[in-house]
Request: fold
Amino acid sequence: MTIERNRLKEIVFAKGAEYGFGDMEIYYQADRATSVRIFKGDIDAFNIVERAGLSFRGEYKGTMGTAFTEKLDEESIDQLLQAARENAEVTQSEEKTELFAGSESYQKVSNFSQQLIDTDSQAIISTALAMEKAALDADPRIEMLNSCALVWSNSELLIVNTKGLDCHTASTMAVSQLSAMAKEHGAVATAYDSGFTSRSLDDLNVSDFADRVGRDAAAKLGAQTVESDNYEIIFRNNAMSTLLQTYSPIFSGANAEKGLSVLQGRLGEQVAGQNITMIDDAHLPGAPGSVPFDSEGVATGRNEVIKDGQLVTFLHHLKSAKKAGVEPTGNGFKAGYRGDLTISPNNLYIEPGDRSLDELIAGTKRGILIIELQGMHAGSDMVSGNFSLSALGHLIEDGKVVRPVDQITVSGNILSVLQNVEAIGNDLRFQGSGRGACGSPSLKINSLSISGK
Amino acid sequence: MLSQAMIEDVLAAALETGGDFADVFVEDKTSTSISMIGGGVDAALTGRDYGIGIRVISGLFAVYAYSNDLRRENLIKIARSAAQAIRGTQRDLTLDLRTVSLNHAHPIQIVPASVTKAKKIELMRRAHLAAKSYDPLISQTSISYKDEDQKVLIANSDGLFIEDRRIRTRLYVEAVATLGREKQVGTSSPGAHQGFEFLENLDIEKHARIAAHTAKTMVGAEFAPSGKIPVIIDNEFGGVIFHEACGHGLEATSVAKKVSVFSDKVGELVASPLVTAIDDGTIQNAWGSSTIDDEGTPTQRNVLIENGVLKGYLIDKLGGKRMGMESTGSARRESYKFAPTSRMNNTYIAAGTSTPEEIIANTEYALYAKYLGGGSVNTATGDFNFVVREGYIVKNGKIEKPVRGATLIGKGIDVLQKIDMVGNNLGFGQGMCGSISGSIPADVGQPMIRVSEITVGGRKGD
Reply:
């Protein structure tokens, strides 16, 4: 028999005590989502999702043991507790993990919308169809969309422990995803982007969004490589957000402590140019990763990670904060009940400047505007900070965009990029949905190495 | 897992509104992962995934619903709500499920759950010690162990009712070398569709040395040159070049909608005549193998390219419907949370005749990519990229010096045509392949190959 949600706590904690656990915690998440995918004017796929799961951690003989299950009957709870106890027995981490009794107060975050929940599937389908049409209309060379989807979801999260923590939140979101394919004279180009809202379907502005993606794809047609050399580089906001997100693990206090970050031992040092301020703000209105508490129940907040180029703090969960002798920053993160506890930003972004992208382009003599980066995971090294990434963009000569560029790689080091920002755009934009999303304005970099032909 | 009568009712509910086809995928998977950093166990996690995916197809339109509330009334409700998205004509339907008993093609000797975690940790510690003691430059190690035991039940409205059990084990070894402020990482991560005996019989120290050697060699290396140059790609994980650059473009997912550069090209010369490429889900106990695919079709050996000529694609049921072709046993998914689609199992370029020594000796100048890392591909344009984890410069027929920081970029079809030597040392490497139906285990493989020209992104002169 599946156990009802409101009885989980008492049953797990009562059984847990029998298994010899001291303090215990449950993390319960339930999601419902609907998604629709459009292909050539028809619904191509329609998905309905409902899932729930429980992860447990408990202190056994001084060590924390963790396990999760999606099967929520009494027998599975026994298996869960047995596995967690075994895991506690083999873990030898020197630092003791302690459960958290709760923060003094939690700020309310506006990421729940009844309006979004009440949206019916017909409205979603017609919005998705309108999105496809707008992308096809963006340019006559858009032949079709490789993918055109809307996902609409709501999620409930509960973290309760025997030390008094009792956190509960519900959130909603809708995500638009589009990949457009343009064709001309046998050449093919694609562009992908996604949009996010936690409020209403209208907020996605699917027509503008699709128009932009469509034009991006068409503008890439006829791209060629460039001579290998050093060029002035502009990372457009979406490309810079992607780069920042890829490198967000370097801000993890745990990674720094373990020698897995290029920022190890650099706290208080000037790691970026004086013009760079980087903030992780869990309460930023409209941002994708806004959340009142982290996955350990610690109240989230606004943290300046880099202030005027100086590394002010790492992001911490309870364990890494304790080890570093600082307060936790509310960045304990679990990718749902299945995940391990790691550290992740909530909404990490580079503070925008006052220049428009057009002004950045106008101020570039011989450069490349990078609009897409590929192979992020494989081509970026957290320990050295070095990256070598396949890129697409446009060649700039004497302040003007002259032609599209592909088949190039841009290489450098994340810290030297942040140390050599010549100008900062005013076009801050977040990329992605959910916690861990990162945002950036467009950035102009003095010089980076490009390999082409 | 679930009774045949209950599955029949769920399928009937799913087809209530006139869908052509319905199937279910019930999954109960337990998994264990242990991570060790610097020789101490950092975390151990055990989990159980449990749920059902229900799919209804009408024409080329598919509805997919999943849940992990497997109570009968809920399953009927979900099947009905999936059916609501189909606007067909209701037909009389008689479901007659026939249980097929599976002849499991990948023998398992030791179920990982029967082995104590202490024993698993002992193997991890061996990897740590071997990597750490390899060289004084090795400053950190990170070892992970993973096993999973996936039980699935697949049934469909054509009458199939079949169960399978897939057990996989894997060890990840990562070594970090530090020289001044410079750090470089080396990895090796063997895995198999096999029980714990795979790791017991594995030369763990060898894999630890491979990871440590890469880290140590690369930390002292200079940056790779940039530009279009010949590239020699070694065997085993070097096969990721074919996987990324061509394999994804041969999946029905992109071929059927004519999004792929390989659409409508069967029978055409798409590669150098030296190239024969195969995807084989039947290789015994290989990481990417399984007896049946995730639609219940037996896996098979699919020749994709033979002597340069495109022979076929990787096809699932829905893709096959769109293409008017049969399934090739290639439907895969990460879990019940994903609708199945065409994916690779174990993909490789077949062995040629040159010895690796001959290839190096016959090369005037090239980047020699001994180990490749991961990469990605845009199947519409064919653009790929991947990193070189351990690279060298070959000059006048000899390996001259190590170089780091290189990325290979290009278009898959160009590279296929520019392969001008194929070695005789076919070998396989293990990876996780991510695509629309999630992250799945897949082998890549090849012998050493030489490509006359690839764009190398390096940082020399930086």
Notes: Chain B touches chain A through 79 residues (CB under 8 Å). The mean pLDDT of chain B is 93.
